[in-house]
């Protein structure tokens, strides 16, 4: 069972919900964490069990970063909005940096998310 983090910036939350619905059956076999708003939205859209962290700008990205450096997250699906400035850009950079540093599979868009999820055995 993989431990998967789900995060999406505001303009990408619809994409994240649609992606999670499409992969609902597979995601249901893994342990899921989400930043506050993303996690709540995906939970409501899919009925999946998702542990909710703080909202991203309030520390949720940092909580996921801590999970990564403590070896408690196996995969990060993080739909970034490349067209909007984020007030917590430093947190976003810290999270993507830690995923890169610890060699945690990191998907920043739907195609990559499809690929990394397909890579999971079940
Ligand atoms: O801001 C985020 C990621 O940087 C996501 O946080 P929310 O899911 O709480 O909106």
Automatic annotation (TrEMBL):
Swiss-Prot/TrEMBL catalytic activity: dihydroxyacetone phosphate = methylglyoxal + phosphate
Keywords of the record: Lyase
Listed Gene3D superfamilies: Methylglyoxal synthase-like domain
TM regions (residue ranges): none
GO BP annotation list: methylglyoxal biosynthetic process
Xref: InterPro entries: Methylgl_synth (IPR004363), Methylglyoxal_synth_AS (IPR018148), MGS-like_dom (IPR011607), MGS-like_dom_sf (IPR036914)
Active site: 61 (proton donor/acceptor)
Domain of life: Bacteria
E.C. numbers: 4.2.3.3
Domain MGS-like positions: 1-122
CDD domains assigned: MGS
Residues annotated as binding substrate: 9, 13, 35-38, 55-56, 88
Recorded GO CC terms: cytosol
HAMAP family: Methylglyoxal_synth (MF_00549)
Family label: Belongs to the methylglyoxal synthase family.
Function as written in the Swiss-Prot or TrEMBL entry: Catalyzes the formation of methylglyoxal from dihydroxyacetone phosphate.
Protein name per Swiss-Prot or TrEMBL: Methylglyoxal synthase
Underlying gene: mgsA
């Amino acid at each position: 069972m993989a431990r998967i983090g789900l995060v999406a910036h505001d303009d990408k939350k619809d994409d994240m919900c649609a992606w999670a619905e499409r992969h609902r059956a597979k995601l249901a076999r893994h342990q899921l964490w989400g930043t506050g708003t993303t996690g709540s939205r995906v939970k409501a859209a899919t009925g999946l069990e998702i542990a909710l962290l703080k909202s991203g700008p309030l520390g949720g990205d940092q909580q996921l970063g801590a999970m990564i450096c403590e070896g408690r997250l196996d995969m990060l699906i993080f739909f970034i909005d490349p067209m909007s400035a984020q007030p917590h850009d430093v947190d976003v950079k810290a999270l993507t940096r830690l995923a890169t540093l610890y060699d945690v599979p990191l998907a920043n868009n739907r195609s990559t998310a499809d690929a990394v999820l397909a890579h999971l055995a079940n």
